[in-house]
Amino acid sequence: MPVPDKDDVARALERLTSGPGSAPTPQPRPRAAPTPQVRVSPAVAKTTAQKPVQKALRPAAPNAAPDQSLSAAISAARPKVTEPKARRPAPGMGLRRTLIPILLTGGFLLIAMAVVRLAWNSIDNPILDLPRWVVIAMVSLGTVCWLLAGANMFAVHRSLQKAGPEPT
C-alpha cells in the first residue's frame, strides 16, 4: 500500500470536515511512473565485471608506545564503578510482603461490616441478624489484622534498610 503524501492527507481531512451531503466522490489515484529499464550491452557488462574492487586500507598503527602519563590521566579521570553485591533477601520476606495487603484489606472489610451493622438500621440489612458478640469480634479481628500489617511493614522496612540499596 503506498504511503499517502501531504496532499492526500489534506484532501482526506477536507472531506471529513465538510458536511455529509457535500462529500466529493473519491478519485482514483494516479499510478506511479514506471522505472526505466536500462539495457547494458554484454561487452560493457564484461569490462565492469572484470575490474577488481580495492579495499580501503587501514592506517598502520604507530610503532611508538603510548604516553604513560596520558593513560594515567585518563584512568584517573574515569569514575570508579563498583558492581553492587547481589544481596539475598531475608527468609520469609516474600511471605511478609504478600501478607501486608491481605491483612490491610481483611481488616478493612471486617471493620466496615461491623460499622454497617451499627449504622444501617433497615429491614434489608442482613448483618442486623448477627449477634452483638460477632460484631465485637469483627472489630477486634479487624484491628488485629491492621496491627499485624503495621508490624509486617515495619519489619520489612527495617530488613530492607539493613540489607542496603537494591541492585538495579
Summarize the structure.
The chain is built from 5 helices and no strands. By secondary structure, it is mainly alpha-helical. Helix 4 (93-119) runs antiparallel to helix 5.
Mean pLDDT: 77
The radius of gyration is 39 Å
User: How many helical stretches?
Assistant: 5
The 3D shape can be described as: flat
Helix content: 40-55%
* Straight-line N-to-C gap: 44 Å
Which ranges are low-confidence, i.e. pLDDT below 50, for 5 or more consecutive residues? none
Biggest sheet layout: none
- What is the succession of H and E elements? HHHHH
Strand segment count = 0
Which structural class best describes the helix and strand composition?
A: mainly alpha
Strand content: under 5%
Task: Describe what this molecule looks like in 3D.
By secondary structure, this protein is an all-alpha fold. Helices cover 54% and strands 0% of the residues. It is built from 5 helices and no strands. The chain has helices at 6-17, 42-50, 68-77, 93-119, 132-163. Helix 4 packs antiparallel against helix 5 (132-163).
Task: Write a concise keyword list for the protein shown above.
168 residues, mainly alpha, 5 helices, 54% helix, flat
Sequence-ordered SSE layout with sheet pairings:
Blueprint: H1 6-17, H2 42-50, H3 68-77, H4 93-119, H5 132-163
Helix pairs in contact: 4-5
